[in-house]
Amino acid sequence: MNKLAVIVVLLGLGVAARAGSIEHLKKRKAVVYTDRSELCLENNRCYPVLIGKTTPKGTFDLNIVKTTQRGYGGDVMKFKEDGDFMFAVHRVWKLKPEERRMERIASSNVKERVMTNGCINVTDDLYEKLKAYFVLEVV
Fold it and tell me: Domain of life of the organism in this record (predicted)?
């Protein structure tokens, strides 16, 4: 095999390796455990979340969607649509202080964290981490 052929083969292997890692990234999955109101990442690190009684279960693709609606920080991660309603993972919505969402997400009482209309509310830090995930499983 000449030098040019070796270089072409090595370049091809590099492209295939990167494509494989991209495919791995597209399969990165976060899991929401509704019985614990927790979201767990690949490293088995789990975080409290706010969920609702109507939060749908299943495996969904996560898609970042821009929004101009107040309280969402400019974007949300859509995971399901049902008629006119979009289920999404988004930063804790704080426009009704009487709902005490920040206090509730920090509560060790799981029942206090079941209070949304079906969306999954997460802290700002967790939301940023989730941007590297493409699949959401809700169990």
Answer: Bacteria
